[in-house]
Specification:
By secondary structure, the chain is of the alpha/beta class. The chain has 16 helices and 10 strands. It has 4 domains: about 70 residues, DNA Methylphosphotriester Repair Domain (3-Layer(aba) Sandwich), CATH 3.40.10; about 50 residues, Arc Repressor Mutant, subunit A; about 50 residues; about 160 residues, Arc Repressor Mutant, subunit A (Orthogonal Bundle), CATH 1.10.10.
Amino acid sequence: MNPSTEARRQRAAQTLADPRWAAVLARDSSVDEHFWYSVRTTGVYCRPSCGARTPRPENVDFHASRESARDAGFRACKRCRPEQAPSALRQVELIAEACRLLQALDPAPDLAALAGRLGLSPWHLHRLFKTHTGVTPRAYVAALRAGKFREGLSRGDKVIDAAYEAGFGSSRAVYEQGTALLGMSPRRYRSGGSDMTLHFAISPCALGQVLVAASERGICAILLGDAPGPLEDELRSRFPAARLELADTGFSDTVARVVALIDEPSGGFALPLDVRGTAFQQRVWEALRRIPSGSTTTYSELAKLLGSPKAVRAVASACAANPVAVAIPCHRVVRRDGALAGYRWGLERKKALLALEGGS
């Protein structure tokens, strides 16, 4: 056999036996910062996810760093640009900069102006922003405005002053949107919710003790625990300025329906809810209510369902912020490997709820 042919055969065999070659064939972006490969016939080095035509294995060498590839005499591929950070990291940095601009500039730039500052098309920015944050730029600005409005009212500013400081264009706009933004009227929020009354009751259930609290709009808290005292303390910490009153016997039917939901989750839950959260949290909670009893999903699957596949941590945070156990069934979300994790009322209760539903 020709010596050069034998050398090529040996180089090919060495490449084929290297586990990194499988990542190159799969164009696996998850290992882009773990190694780089060079191609002798083209003189370039690439990241594993490069979309260029797959090279012959006998022409490939692997490198632990960009510097190693450059020192060996290879130049950066113009297609995958391995000298730059991976595209996913660049996207995160771009969206972080977009968020900083939306927070810092007054008034906040519209989509076209923001995209222009970042060197992107409006369509591309809109897609990336929603993918990484779970909300559109417009919804993000609305949430910032609502936050500033709440801060102003909490300082004791007049409603109209807090509204203009937050960026509302008119007093009419803030009064039309105020209740939706705050969960109560602006004047009531300014007073700390001190004229808001919550009726609550605590009852034994299959999972220990359950506290059910309701405002005039609907059930605002379903809390699980081992003893009444800590449950009442948690309710007070959630609504520090509200008046809390033990419910009379007329509330017993509501409590009974919550207890029945815990004992038999397949029965459904039709009572009105008064739950307050960010726009993204509300989307997550609504998606949770659509998961059938006896079924589970994962945090990543839920993020994909919401059209935000990279917002897995935001989805998990929204599940953790759920104020109404069982009615919004965050217990039906599990980790990718099927493990039970991340239930604010304890993993044993999560396991018990899924067992009651006949789920995994």
